[in-house]
Amino acid sequence: MAAVRVEEAYSERDETIDAKGNVTEVEIPYLVFNVEDESAALAAARPRVKTVAGMSLESIEVVERINGSTWKVKAVYEVDDDGDSPDDDNGDEDTTVFAFDTGGGTKHLNQSIKTDGKYPNDAPDFAGAIEVDNEGNVNGVDVTMPVLNFTETHTLAGSRVSTSYKKTLASLTGTVNKSGFRGFSAGEVLFLGASGTKRSKKSSAPWEITYRFAVSTNKAGFKVGDIQVARKYGWDYLWVRYADKVAEGGKNVVKKPVAVYVEMVYPEGDFGNLGIGN
């Protein structure tokens, strides 16, 4: 077979400009002669494509097969906003910023941890039920609950932040850790989601991704009224069923806890798939 030859197709060069008239992308087509397949065409074109001032080579792609041994390929260049070379996208990725707050959250409680006092001494004992009205309804109270919120911002190479990875982040949002994570036990960390920023038009440029989490601690061996609860994972939902009971002395009918339910309301997720370690 004749020698491989690469020639620029000058008449088919394309440029893309923005609203200000600045060139943001250039496509330069080449014809590759005397090769048998796509891989050979790309291999022949790569060392022969030209440089474009102020732009980085983003890709070399096969456009079409002209005949049995002739191929058209194109070199795609994008504006080099940050002055990096096209191979700098890997860099020292995973520059990480941590932040946290303990602002807590608000929760409606119908049941107290304990009743510190009731006055007079013969007042009905509701076994920790809060604000029981004259009709026997347990109205409860809104309180601030201890919740640790924290974020991590990681710098990841552009090649890592694929559509598949974004789908993984979406699927893990609203899940709790099924195994230990950042020093917390399984069930204590809720993944609230992630947001990403890329500060360049280059497809290979790094992403800054902020991951948001909230922590609620697990509890074990505690009481609700007179009912012993074996375990509640941090993000489980606990609710209480009340029923009328005759108070001590038989003077009053009061609402007291008769059953406690611990519900799993967030599915478990494998936080290892976040790709930021455990």
Largest sheet features: 5 strands, antiparallel
Please estimate the helix content.
under 10%
Q: What structural category arises from helix and sheet content?
A: mainly beta
Shape: rod-shaped
Q: What are the secondary-structure elements, in order, as H or E?
A: EEEHEEEEEEHEEEEEEEE
How many strand segments? Answer: 17
Radius of gyration: 32 Å
How many domains? The number is 2
Q: Mean pLDDT, rounded to whole units?
A: 86
Structural overview:
The structure is a single chain. The protein has 278 residues and is mainly β. The protein has helices at residues 38-45, 163-172, and strands at residues 5-8, 14-17, 23-33, 55-67, 70-79, 96-101, 105-109, 141-145, 148-156, 176-177, 189-198, 207-215, 219-224, 227-232, 237-246, 253-263, 268-269. The longest helix has 10 residues, at 163-172. It folds into 2 domains: 5-79, no CATH class; 87-278, no CATH class. The two termini are 56 Å apart. The strands form 6 sheets. Strands 1, 2, 3, 4 and 5 form a 5-stranded antiparallel β-sheet that branches.
